[in-house]
């Protein structure tokens, strides 16, 4: 009996001791109280959500997060400049197609620097709690993790169910072919400035990623083949790019100047019936102050192509600048770890962001409240293509795709000629980088 009592007492002391020593954000941040860190954010809902939550982090830690909001098209250039300048940048925003360049050049600190430090590593970090495709695509390079998924997207079909109903449809188009041939003619009335579909296509990354690439994979095409040679003049790629041209007849005039905000606003104001946009824009379209169609808003997966459901994949990770000071590195990590944590997933979602955590989307209340969740999770779990190569040369190739993709849409060059021009210039870039002589490891 005495032995049992002693064992119970020993267990109680051990548990009490463990509880007393349990990791807390407040204790981890104590050495960094008063530290200021710098971050770059975008003018998008996910960043507005993080900003809403910042006071909580700053109150708990005493760490000040200074942020600058920069247009997406200027973000990579600004970050690259700051990697080698005296201007501070501690929290690095990394697009899915920048990870190869940033990690390959040693600009990002591997997260093992922090996860191996018991004073900084939250035991509840749970890297396996992120959707695998997000952690792999946005935060990892060459078998090393450099950032945690933040503000992640799947391409989704947002549509005005009232406009579709008035045109005789009780559900969205299941395929791209159905959208073009059945839905688009009935949903377009140019005399009333009403159109079936808007595709964000402004020259730059929006053109190369959100417009041009979106129609390759669903049709069985791709930018490159397995040997990193252009695949743009293959039959499947040509069919996808020609489909985009055919669909332009049912888009608003000036579509080549539409960025995300213009496409989202066109749907929100009732000018178009459908858009394929990132999941992050649901909060904008569901906001009565910004949208006239809140009662008519509905969401589905992107339409299927001949090759099946191949939706767009986009988003970012947050990482730590390898060139920052030790205090700034630690403080930046504590912020990144906190804002992407499972504990903050629901508050982030409720503030208008899109979490990369799996657990939050299993909540029945979340599924009911946010209709974009189910199609987004279906897209992520089904696996989306690596439709934008993540290698370091992507920014240079993106410029080529953006220029020639716009030229194709404007009719200044044919689909075939434009694709050939992109392929030739793209192969020149990759040849100079050593992709065809064995000097470069072929990583995507």
Automatic annotation (TrEMBL):
Protein location: Periplasm
InterPro entries: Bact_solute-bd_prot1 (IPR050490), SBP (IPR006059)
One annotated Gene Ontology cellular component of this protein: periplasmic space
Signal sequence residues: 1-22
Predominant subcellular localization, coarse grouping: periplasm
Entry keywords, A to Z: Signal
SUPFAM superfamilies assigned to the protein according to its UniProt record, in alphabetical order: Periplasmic binding protein-like II
Family statement: Belongs to the bacterial solute-binding protein 1 family.
PANTHER family found in the cross-reference section: ARABINOSE-BINDING PROTEIN-RELATED, DIACETYLCHITOBIOSE BINDING PROTEIN DASA
Protein name: Carbohydrate ABC transporter substrate-binding protein, CUT1 family
Species whose genome carries this gene: Pseudomonas abietaniphila
The organism's taxonomic lineage, starting at the top: Bacteria, Pseudomonadati, Pseudomonadota, Gammaproteobacteria, Pseudomonadales
């Amino acid at each position: 009996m005495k032995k049992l009592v002693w064992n119970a007492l020993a267990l109680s002391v051990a548990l009490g001791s463990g509880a007393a020593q349990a990791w807390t954000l407040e204790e981890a941040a104590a050495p960094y109280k008063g530290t200021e860190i710098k971050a770059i954010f975008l003018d998008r809902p996910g960043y507005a959500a993080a900003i809403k939550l910042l006071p909580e982090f700053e109150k708990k830690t005493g760490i000040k997060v200074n942020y600058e909001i920069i247009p997406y098209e200027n973000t990579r250039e600004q970050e690259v400049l700051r990697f080698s300048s005296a201007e501070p940048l501690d929290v690095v925003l990394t697009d899915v197609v920048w990870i190869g360049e940033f990690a390959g050049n040693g600009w990002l600190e591997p997260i093992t620097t922090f996860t191996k430090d018991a004073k900084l590593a939250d035991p509840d970090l749970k890297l396996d709690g992120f959707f695998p495709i997000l952690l792999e695509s946005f935060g990892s390079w060459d078998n090393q993790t450099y950032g945690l998924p933040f503000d992640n997207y799947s391409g989704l079909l947002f549509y005005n169910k009232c406009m579709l109903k008035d045109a005789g449809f009780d559900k969205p188009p299941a395929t791209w072919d159905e959208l073009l041939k059945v839905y688009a003619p009935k949903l377009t009335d140019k005399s009333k400035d009403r159109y079936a579909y808007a595709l964000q296509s402004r020259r730059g990354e929006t053109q190369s990623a959100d417009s041009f690439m979106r129609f390759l994979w669903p049709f069985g095409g791709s930018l490159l083949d397995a040997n990193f040679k252009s695949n743009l003049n293959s039959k499947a790629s040509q069919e996808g790019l020609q489909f985009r041209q055919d669909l332009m007849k049912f888009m608003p005039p000036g579509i080549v100047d539409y960025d995300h905000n213009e496409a989202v606003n066109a749907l929100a104001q009732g000018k178009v019936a459908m858009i394929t946009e990132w999941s992050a824009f649901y909060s904008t379209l569901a906001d009565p102050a910004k949208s006239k169609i809140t009662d008519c808003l509905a969401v589905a997966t992107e339409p299927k192509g001949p090759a099946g459901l191949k939706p767009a994949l986009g988003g970012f990770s947050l990482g730590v600048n390898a060139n920052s000071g030790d205090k700034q590195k630690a403080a930046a990590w504590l912020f990144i770890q906190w804002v992407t944590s499972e504990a903050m997933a629901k508050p982030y979602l409720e503030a208008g962001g899109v979490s990369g955590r799996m657990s939050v989307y299993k909540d029945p209340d979340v599924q009911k409240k946010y209709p974009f969740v189910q199609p987004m999770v279906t897209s992520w779990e089904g696996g989306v293509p690596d439709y934008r190569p993540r290698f370091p040369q992507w920014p240079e190739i993106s410029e080529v795709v953006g220029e020639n993709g716009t030229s194709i849409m404007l009719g200044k060059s044919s689909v075939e000629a434009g694709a050939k021009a992109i392929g030739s210039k793209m192969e020149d870039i990759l040849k100079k980088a050593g992709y065809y002589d064995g000097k470069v490891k072929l990583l995507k």
